[in-house]
Each structure stands twice: as structure tokens, then as C-alpha cells.
User: What shape does this take?
Amino acid sequence: MKHKSSFAIKSFGVIFMLGTVILLSGCAFKDIDKRLFVSAIGVDPAVNGEEGYKVTLKVALPFGAIKETTKPNFTYLSKEGESIGEIIRMLETHADKVLEFGQMKTIVIHEDLLTDHMKTFMDYFIRRGDIQFIAYVAGAKSSAEEILKVQPDTEAPASVSMFNFFGDTGTESPYITTTYLFQFRRDFFTEGLNAVLPLIETNKDQTELIVNKTIVVDKKKDPLTLDHVETKYYNTLFRGANGFSYKVKNGDKRLLLNISRVKMNYQIITKNNVPQAIDMDVKMVGVIGESDKTLSIAKLDEYNHFASKEVKKKILGLLNRMQEHQVDPFGFGLHYRATHLSHDHLAETWQQAYPDLKFNVNVEVKLQSTGTIQ
Amino acid sequence: MDETEKPAALLYINRLAKQLAPSADVVKKTLKRKDETVHLLFLKSVVDMMQLQEIVVKPFYEISTEYNFSEYIQSLPYETAMPTGDEEVLIEITKGNVFVMIGKEMTLLELKMVAANAVQEAKIEQTIHGPILGLSESLETNLNLMRQRYHQPSLIIETMQLEDCSNRAIALLYDKERVRPGLLENIKKRLQTLDVELVQASADLQYYINNKKRSLFPTSLLTERPDRIIHNMDAGKVIIMVDGSPNAIIAPIVFFDLMISMEDNYYSFWVVKSIQLLRYGGLFAAIFLPAIYIGVTSFTPDVLRTELALTVAASRIGVPYPSFAEVFFMLIFIELLTEASLRLPTMVSATATTVGGLILGTAAVDAALTSNIMVIVVSLVAISTFVIPISELSYAVRICRFLLLVYATLFGLAGVLLGLLGLILYLANKDSMGEPYLRMFWQSRREELKVEQK
Assistant: This one.
């Protein structure tokens, strides 16, 4: 009996001790209400001083009843400093809660920083474990801080509207380029390919975010901006974007073509392993979406012909402009490197040949109908 | 004749009667007719008086003198074997046997009256399309039920008497052509070596035949449904029934048997598969949801979508205690509620659940003692627990989730995985009567022999 009771006391003691241990909890334990969710980071050049950056964090604030809240709540933390890591460390002392980067999904970078020295600060985002590689990267016109501070009228509470632009999460448009952090870093360092970024702008009242341009980033040159038409062609041909529509003008006729399928193939023509030309075949299938004249289904061939000619002109314009600036967002160089036997001067051969390449573009537009009405 | 009889036989019956005394229900009767005398000894509380009158008393006075009454008694189908030793005879009498002594001939007639032999409605394992009635509390009725549903000469019923102080009869049922070899010996050995004070029902016998005294998961299954019993017997398992208990024990079982509802046999294939998927989802939710809540909200909120993270963070505003204290508090609260509504009569329990679940839940959120997301998690967990068809498993699951909660509190989501791993290791290490507990596909012996022949 005595033995039994001492066992009971012992086991009670053990349970009590374990119970107190539970109250201590793990070292990484931090309740969700003791965290601040950073939803976007903006990087601008420092205003004071030559070197350094100004980092702005867009912090999403939790709020009570979502149904009753009409406006999303954000707060902004800004600081200047020499390196991103240093600035973020300092920013941690500006807020009472832990800065949580796990939900950080957009990195917005000032246009002027999109040159060679972005290598140094992009490094921070890659090395930091809790920033996701699938975060979107975008350029910002005028300044990143300004873009972050835009609170669009369409933004719903408890959501960040900037995320919805990219990755076909919300809106889907061939005008919007999506670049992920992992993709951006990979493309940035790959030879024979230039990384591209979407450019985020805002309107005068700062009530809208506008994303319809693309920036081509080069390690040695200043960034080159593609306007919205070029962006559309780029995304349709090289990124497989849907929703391509095209306005054709032929004499007094104005047609809007809704293209449902686009297929693009190209081949690099070489002579003695030196690239000479690029043959590109583009096939488009679609319907007529809008017209100011009566249309006849019998004349579809005629419309096909106009459309092909016009589209070809635009594609050639885009290709030639890139060639002029000696940038290659399409990855022609990468394709050449990947399909030819490697030797020491492979990349150089391409670089020398690229400015003089001839583009042979063959566009075939196939209209299926004049829409649901004749 | 009286004088010669007295010393040996009458002395014996007097001795027996003395041992049963001073109980009020002991009846010692002597029937006399001319030169014939019959002594009866029985307990009137367990003997069917009408039967006794019809079978023994009436014929005794009606039978003509040419015929031997003793032979008549010997030929009755109610006779039970006469054991040796006073103690054993007395036990037989307490079971409802009538001790009949004619001259020197002693016979035991089974004329028992069982008050609780009504077949009960299956209440715990209800189905929509299956049989409505379950077992009764009388072993004879139950055996009758089994025979009625399984007309096979290979169905063997073996009865044993427990060596405890209640001396209950237990029965082993199996199909001798299908039962797994070795299993029967194993179970018999377990039953014979039982060293217990008192067995009241199948439930505590089930506990005693379990090899390990301290275990969490059941290693045999308790059921009240005849269709489940037949289903399992057909698969080569052994059924153990205890007299006076409306439940039967099925052994051995695998973990997945605990997730089967008999309803699964009565629906079409895809319906059953989706219901099973739902059930396993419920099992997962019942075990892991509270732990995942802690792991996600307090360690890795990156897992959540931004909107959800903000909502959860918002719902926790003003909650003074860390998330694990909140979860413990709410889980214990819901356990109390479940226990209370189980014990209460049906009419009151509805009120208890409403008061507890709705009013206290809302009040706790309003008082910022807990977050409303937590209330959702806890109610989901409570509901999921009831999806598990066998109640023993749902008890085990209710304890498991507290263990996982501790892991999650200490190590976050990694801890939850660690806990899951531990749980799987524990289950894999377990066996039920020598059968691996996590065995995936149970087949009957015949099917297994078929596989071997191929």
C-alpha cells in the first residue's frame, strides 16, 4: 500500500512538472496577433546621400469585423539606409510587433534602380528564408513608395489589390506581364535572355494602379520600357497570354479581331554555326469582335489577309526595336545557346550576330466567323 | 423406503439447501404420491414456475404407476449435465436449474426464466437501411439470433464459464471453416488465463482480454449489431458474447475496422467511397485540427492566405491568453459539453447543447476569451468526432488530439508531423490477438488460401 501511494505521488509530480513545461511553450511561439504582416516592399533610391536605398514596407493591419469594414487598413514604414537588410532591421524597432514577411508577395522597385546594382539588393530577398520565391517583382514609375501608398477604390478589405494584377489571380490581360522573384533572378543572370518586369503606374488622383507596360532589364544598359502594344505582343507570343485582340484598319473599314488561339514557332537559321536569321511562324485563330460596317462571311479570306499583314508589321516592329537596343527579352540567345554545341565563344558569337540578324516573320490569321451575328 | 433413502440422498439435498440458506428464494419441495417421492431444490427467482408446473409437477401426479417417473425426467430435453462437487451444483442451481432427486437419481433441469431477453433496438450504431434490432441481454436469445441469421453447420458455438465471482456464461462463436488458424487457441488461452474479480459485461471483458492493461486504442470491437457480427464472423474472426450484455466482442480487429459503418454494405459503390472519404476526413480533422490551428497561427502564419491570416489575427485581437491556452480551454469546454449531454436524459441534453454550444460560445467570443475562428475550429472538431462510427475509437481520438496539441505547442507544425509519426509508429507497433493493427486489407481465411494457391 505504501508503495502504491508513493507511486501515485511520484506520477502526480511528473504530471505537474510536465504541465508547467507546457505553459512555457516553444521558442518560435509567437501568437498571430503579435505579428505584423508585410504585404509589399518598395525600394527607392535614397533621397539624402548618393549611395543607399529607401525602403518602404506596406503593412496590412488586422481589423475587427471584415463585413463592416469598407476600407482596407494599411500602414507604411519607411527608412533610408545603406543596405536593405540593415534598413529592415532598423524598421523592426519602429513597430511593436514582429514583422512577418511570409505574406509578402510584391517587391516594387523604382525604375532608376533597375540596372546592374540591383544585383546587390535583390540578393537580400533571395537569401531571406521567409520571403517566398513566388513573390511578384515589379518596376514602379515615379517612385515605389508612391505606388505602395496607392489605395485603389476597388481594393476590398483584408486583401491587397496589388497581388490581384499578377499571375492571373484577379484580372487577366495580355497587357500585364507577371514576373516572379525566382524567375527574375534566374533571367537576370542568364546569358542570352533579358529579364522583364511589369511597370506599375498610378493615375493623378492616386486612386488606380495601372499595369500595362513592361520593362526590359539589362545588366549593362539602362532599362528599356515597352509600351502597352509591345507588351501585348510580347505576352501573347512569348508568355502564352490569352485575350489578344487586335484592331485592323483597312481603308474605311475598322475591325476588331478577338483572337482565341495563338501559336508561335521560330527557328534560328545558322550558317557555319553563326546565326543568320530567325524564321518566325505565327498562327492566330479567332473571330471578328467589332466592326463599323456590315460584314460578309464570304469575305473572311480578305479580312484574314489584311489582318495578317498588319500583325506582321507590328511584330517586326517589336523585334527590330529590341534588336536596335541590343536587348533580348525573348530568349533567342538562350535558345541558340541551348541548341548548339557548346564552345568557349558561343555566347560571344551570338552577341556579335544578334544586331545583324534578319527576321522573317510569317503571320497567318484565320478568322472563323464574323461573330455571333452576320 | 423412506427410511433407507434418508441417510444418503436426503442428507445430500439437505446439505445443498443449507448452503443456499438463508436466502428467501430457496425452495425445497417434496412431491409425494403413494410410494414415490421426488425432491426438488431450486431458486424461485430464476426458475420459470409455469414450466416447472407443466413439466415436472403435473406429470408426476398424472403418470400411471406402470411408468417410471424417473425415466420420464431423464428423457426431458431440458436436462443439463450434472457437475461433480457441491460448489458446481450450487452454481448450476443459481443459474436457474432445478435440482430433481428421485430416489438416488439426481438430475438438473434447465427451466430458467430470463427477464431481460427482449431484443433491443440498435441505438449506438444506427443505420438507415440495416436491421433495426440489435442483441438482447440474454445469451440464449443472442445465440438464437446468430443461428437464425447464419445457417451454416460450420457455425460453432462454444460456451465457457468465467472463473470470476459472477460465474457468467460466455460463448465463443466462429465459423470453423473460415476462422484463422491459431487465433482460436490464442483467444481461448487468454480467456482461460483471465484473473479478474468480476466481469459485468462485454465491455469489461474486452478490457481484460486486451494484453496490455494501459492502452489507448481498442484492440477488439464492441458491437450491438447482428449484421456486423455476421459480417466479421464471415471474415474469419471470433465473436465473444457474455451473458447479460447486449454487446458482443469481435476479435481480432484492425484499425480500419473501426472506421466501418454497417451502412457501407447497403449503399452503392461510389456513395460508399465518398462517405468513407468524408469519414476519414473527419477522423483527420478530429485529431489534427486543433494542433494545426496552433501550429499555423502561432508558428507559421505564412501557410495561410493573406486574407485569412489577417482575419485570424483580427479575431484574436483582445484575447489575453496565447493560442494554446485558448485551444485547451475551448477543447476542455467542448469535452465537458459532450460528456454532459451523454449522461443527461435525451430531453434535457438538447437544452444543454444549446445552452453550452450556442450561448456560451458566443458569450466567450464577445468576452474576448476566445477568437471566433477558434469557436469554428472547436465545433468542427466536435462534429468530426461524431463522424467516427465506433465510439471507442472516438474516445481514443479525443485523447490523441490533446497529445498532438502539446507537440504543436512546443514545436509548431513540425511538431504536428512528429506527433503524427509517433501516432503511426504506436499503431504500427500494436497488435490485436497477434494480428498487425494497421493491416490494410483484411481477407477471410478462404480468400487468403486462394491467394496462396495461385
Q: What stands out?
A: The CA atoms of residues 190 and 223 of chain A lie 16 Å apart.
